[in-house]
Structures are given as C-alpha cells and as structure tokens.
Amino acid sequence: MNQVLESLKSKDMIQNEMMYREIVEYSVETIFIHVDHEILYINQAGSDFLKGSKKDIIGADPLCIIQDVFKPMIVERFRKAMLASGPIEVIEQTIARLDGSYVDVEFYCHPVQFGGRKAIQTGLRDITERKNTERQLNEREKLASIGQMAVGIAHEVKNPLTSVKGFLQLVKETNTHPYLQAMESELEKAIDTLQNLLQVSKPNLYEEPMIEIDLCKELSSLIFLFQDKLYNTEIEMDLRNSDQMIVGKKNLFLKAFFNLIKNALEAMPEKGKIRIEHYFQNDCIHVKISDNGIGIPKDKIDCLGTPFYSSKGEGTGLGLTQVFTTVREYGGTVQVQSELGIGTTFLVQLPLHPTIG
Ligand SMILES: Nc1ncnc2c1ncn2[C@@H]1O[C@H](COP(=O)(O)OP(=O)(O)OP(=O)(O)O)[C@@H](O)[C@H]1O
Ligand SMILES: [Mg+2]
User: Fold this and answer.
1) pLDDT tens string 106-115
2) Which ligand is nearest to the Cα of residue 289, counting in written order?
3) Nearest Cα residue to atom 19 of ligand 1
4) Which domain holds residue 305?
5) Final residue of a domain: which of 158, 175, 201?
6) What would the pLDDT profile of 212-226 be if each residue is shown by its tens digit?
C-alpha cells in the first residue's frame, strides 16, 4: 500500500515538474535557473533576450551578464535567495547581453527545486520602455521648470525696465543726445520680448473679450499674411462645416494658427505643400495643418511646446508654447504626427464650448 502511495506521489511530482517546466519554457519573460555559478536551464524567451543560444548560456556563470561593479551585490542576492523560503525583493539593474548591448531590467530571484536539488530561479523583465519614458519625463520637467523660471524672471525684470523707459522719456524732454533714441528703441525691444514671453506662457492673463470665431474665414485671411513667402509653396485648403464656431479670444487663436502655418513654411525651405483642413466631428472643431517638410525627430516630439525649445538658429522657441497653452487653456488638444523627411501634421481639436474661459 505504502509503495503504491509513494509511486502515485512521485508521479504527481513528475507531472507537476513537467507542468512547471512548460509554464517557464513558454513564459514571455526571461527565466533561468542556476546554482553554484552555473546556469542549469534557460527558457527560449531568455536566450532570445540575452542574444545567445541556449548552448552558449547553459553552463555559463550567471554573473557573466553583470557589470563588474555590481557583481558583489548580485552574489549577495544569490546567497540570500538560496537561504530564503520565497521571492526576495525585486531590484532594477542594467545587464550586459551576450552581443555586448546593455539593457535595463527588473531582476527577481527565488529559490526552487530543480532536478531534486535546491537552486535559484532568476527572472528578468525588460523595462527599457519604462526607463526611456522616465528619462523623457525628467527631461521635460527640467525644461518646463526652466521655462517657468524664465517666466518668473521676465515678470520681475519687465517692471523696472518699464520704469527706466519712463525716466528715459523724461530725459528726452530736456536733452537731445543722439543715443537717447537708440536707447529707447532697444529698451522697447527688450520689453516686447518679455511681454511676449509672459503672454505666451499665460494666455489667460491676456485681456480680450470672448467672441464667436469663424475659423474658416480667419484661416483664409491668415494665409495672406504669408504672401511674400508663398512663391514656391502650394497651399491647399479644405474648409468644411464653416457654420460651426468656437467662442474664444480671437487674437490668441489667430496667433496660434499663424505660428503653426509659420512653422510649416519654415520646415520647407525649398518647394513644398501645406494643407489646411477645417471640419466638425464629435462636437469638436478640427483644424489640421500638414506640411511635407523636414519632419521632427521622434525623440524631440515630447519637447514641443516647452518654452525655448527650438532647432532654428533664429527661433525663440515660443511659437508652439503659445499654441499649446492657448489650445489647452481653452480645453482643446494638440496632436502631432511627424516623420523625418516626409512631413508633419498638427491636429488641433477645439470643443464648441470651452471648458475653461
Ligand atoms: N511643422 C514643423 N516641421 C518641422 N519641425 C517643426 C514644425 N513645427 C515645429 N517644429 C520644431 O519645433 C521647434 C519649436 O517650434 P516653435 O514654433 O515653438 O519655435 P521656433 O519655430 O523654433 O521659433 P519661433 O519662436 O520663431 O516660433 C522648431 O524649432 C522645430 O524644430
Ligand atoms: Mg515657430
């Protein structure tokens, strides 16, 4: 009777182990089992991820994927996992693959029974995308806070400059020094730049009545402002649903669409085509401005709208800041699609009734 029970038990164990192996083998994450500095098993996803064949990896030291500085720490983790009764805490680690490339992973270990002996199961989860997003967010936050700081400084510097301008006008009343005129016009330029920065970053502070805006009419008129630059650019207009109108600050929106069209033109230094569309869909006015210009690199898309981000020698990098802040403060959205060498499309969606005034 005991023998029958024993054989049933060991059959169960074998079945369990086979099931366990299948789960591990077909897991999409890297899993390998090792003991005493030797890898005993690695699943298919693991050998693909580590860029080596199973033959190369089995028998190797698991520390071969660890950079020298981290080896003592990982040895300590393996020791801890061997003594533990369950999983030990997960860490993030950069590992070196067999083809020499580095990759960020979540690294987790726990003890297992393998081939009748105690071993360690190590799992690696690829976190490259998460890390990249984190890096981009940090970069964006950094740029945004620099922008905020710049706005603060602009505010503080504009007031004393305005007083200087007042005093200069008083001096001009009693003096005729030839430099006074130049001083005044340079000062005005500086005040204008600061005013521009403040307006761009906080469009809601800009006093203007909310009125119905016929965007179709305004977009058609805007094009005339670029007459002198249009000799080698074709403009295609597809303006539908002109009866649908938003209610907002007209000059802010004109400036925003002016900035988008100006960018499209500047993206096509040679010949090119700009397409401007206006249509109504899902309770929103859509304005699409597409060009077949130089395009925007993927890693720069997130920087768009950040004050002072510009790839142009002469650019201030405030054009898109004005576009994004105006549209978002109104309750709309801006989407960008771009491909290097093919072109760029900015899609502005504006709800008929603004959520924020
Ligand atoms: N249609 C576009 N095609 C290609 N790149 C674009 C386009 N629109 C914007 N960009 C990129 O975004 C950057 C920021 O644009 P933004 O309008 O904010 O500043 P700018 O055009 O450089 O300067 P300005 O303050 O004179 O507008 C540009 O320098 C350019 O690299
Ligand atoms: Mg611009």
Assistant:
1) 999 999 988 8
2) 1
3) 317
4) 211-351
5) 201
6) 999 999 999 998 888
